Amino acid sequence: MDFLSRMGRRWLPIGLAVVTAALVACGGNGDDDDDNGGDQPNPTQPRTLSGVAATGAAFTDAVVRVHAADGSVAGTSAPVGRDGTWQVTLAEGAKAPFVIIATRQSAVGETESLVSLVDAAPPGTTHVNVTPVTTLVAARVSPSGQPTRLPDEVKAGSATVDGSTLAAKTGEIKELLAPVLAATNTTSIDPFRTPFTIGSAGYDQLIDALLVTITPTGAASANIDISMKASGDAPAPRITFSSEQSLATIKANNSAVINTPIPTPSLPPVGIATLIEDLTTRMNACYALPTATRVSGTTAASVSAPACRTLFVGDDPTTYRGNGGAVSSSGSFSSLFPDNTTNLRFDQGSYEFTRGNGDIVVGLRSVTSDGAQVFDTFVVRNENGKLKLIGNQYQYNGAVNAFHQYRTFPTLNQSAFNYYSSGYTMTITNTTTSNGVPIFDRVVVDAPNGETLTLRPSAGSSFLTLVRADGSLSGTSVVRIASSYENAGTAGSPATRDTAVYFSPQQLTDPEIAVIPQQAVWTFRYYLASNPTVEAARQTYRTRARALTIAELKATPLPRFTSATLNALTSGANADGSVPMPTSQAYPVSWEVPTGALAPTQVQLFGVRVIGTAQQSFNDAVSVASTARSVAVTCSPATAADQHCNGSNFAANDYLTGVQMSVNDRTGRVFNVHANAYRLP
Asked: Does residue 254 share a domain with residue 308?
């Protein structure tokens, strides 16, 4: 089911890695005297910086700020529009070099940034591009590898921005990008000064093809990943390195990729950004119509408005199928049917990758009338020069995303064992028949590293959970590939102590995680309860971001539970650490969101129902607005065999074993904070 089908109960896990793009200008205007550049401006003639801010698609809604050599803001642009252009007139007296940072922020607080540098700004207008390629140059200029730190680094004198430095660092990036530059016929361009337009061949196709990720590992370093966006089922070429590495080391470690040509057919189609922009325009036209005009019933066949029907392949909504869901008021695109989604707006489109059958996966942001935002992906097909919605045509539900957690143990004085973990979550809804019986016997998942994982339904769980080696259910869908105690003095490993969750048998180091592909393919094999010996379906899912290393995760700000929520756990805990659930009211949870952290959009309770010696695990989740800081979680049975609810209240003998909050970023990365209420072994 696509996210638009869950608008009424928005489930949005958390993810945070900020992707920055930096723009660096190589020298001034060529024959200008450096002494007459930015250091001694002529006050009678204004100086203007302007250009295009884009990642292939225009960097819409971003605001461009130009920082002078002393770190002050020398000018601010209007929000970037659909053509990607921006313009800033510099404050009189502002001195070069200038750091140009374009930023936009989502409702949950995620900040995306593109950064650029220009060493001189003579009177008149200077053209400067702000793109992922210029970001890479800025990352090589920055001593921390983090382009958004450059205003402070230039002010402190730790970063040098002059013509020779920019030329040298631009040359480094061109060496690393040589195959894709050749494939897009952009070998000779100046990434900072060459003009281009959104949707054109050459430079725009180049940046549409690249997936650039810069992830801080602390205050003084970053991991940098340059990937080609995938085309087909084959692994995409990629280069990974630390900001602390020399060019020679980077080239030696990535020589196979740097020396292998990229075939032109593997590139994104020329003009894909324009096609995606046209799709959002048509989707907005559909959702602007009154509900009675959009639909006349509750099924795909009842989608009546031509503006809506023509969004789909064959101008027919019945052709769409996504993760087992057809278009309907309770399935895919259920947002077409209610009144409260009229004027739902789509924007910030992006090309993600091309599937093996040639269909294209695009990313879009949707914004409700009250300002709530959701980032989702859609499978589309080019039909007569228009992108049409087709879905992945899969029969069953499934998804995989990078997952990150800060796990605490507030009860029984166990805080020394608080830890960070990184991994992947496989989301498979515990789908049931009309009688509340799960339809799946199991789902077997083949991970990209060759590991095989099995998930099965549980009576009290809304999702399938991982099966341990001994056949028992783990109660989680997350496989943790790395972990580290928060307290460096705590001996041992979380993987051997916290047996309540699921750890991969082979725990990875940070360098091993850093080379995991961003767009890795996972294969899901479905077996039905009605015929468990026969594979019913095989579906593949591709991540849009890899799991973070532990160092990257520790450098990421996270939300935190309030003292009131934590005190309720510690004061009410039993000898085993669990907390009796209230039977006459919902369970209250509250939290805080520090600067830089993403705001949770889901809160979830975990527990066990104890009857005699038998225990049945359960979970209850509720979606929350990004502006919320508290919620009361009610009880909802997951299956017909689930007995942990008494109406919307919790039943007697229900015990809380954990509470968590989560959100995901625009790439689907999940960020999660979990407070446990059980005794560690």
From this structure: no
Q: Are residues 594 and 661 in the same domain?
A: yes
- Report whether the peptide linkage leading into residue 410 is cis, meaning its omega lies within 30 degrees of zero: no
CA angle 253, 258, 260 (to 5 degrees): 125
What are the tokens at 389?
Answer: 């919605």
Instruction: Look at residue 548 and tell me if it is in a domain.
Output: yes
CA-closest candidate to residue 633, choices 667, 672, 659: 659
- Do 110 and 123 fall into the same domain? yes
- Tens-place pLDDT, residues 450-501: 999 999 999 888 999 999 999 999 999 999 999 999 999 999 999 999 999 9
Domain boundary among 266, 286, 306: 266
Domain count, the chain: 3
Alpha-carbon gap, residue 509 to 516, rounded angstroms: 11
Both 318 and 451 in one domain: the answer is: no
Q: 174, 182 in Cβ contact below 8 A?
A: no
CA dihedral 679, 479, 544, 142 (to 10 degrees): 60
For residue 257, give the 3-state DSSP assignment.
Answer: helix
Specify if 394 maps to a domain. no
- DSSP letter at 437 equals -
Calculated CA dihedral for residues 565, 567, 570, 572, nearest 10 degrees: -80
68 shares its domain with 210: yes
Residues in Cβ contact with 171 at an 8 Å cutoff, skipping those fewer than 6 apart: none
> Among residues 652, 487, 661, 611, which one has the least CA distance to residue 12?
661
Note whether 527 and 536 are within 8 A (CB): yes
Q: What are 258-317's pLDDT values in tens digits?
A: 999 999 999 999 999 999 999 999 999 999 999 999 999 999 999 999 999 999 999 999
Alpha helix segments (H runs only) across 288-411: 291-294, 306-309
Domain that holds residue 154: 20-266
Which are the contacts of 310, defined by CB distance < 8 A and separation ≥ 6?
Answer: 282, 388
User: E strands of 243-372, at which residues?
Assistant: 321-322, 325-326, 345-354, 360-367
Q: Do 606 and 656 contact (CB within 8 A), yes or no? A: yes
pTM over 0.70: yes
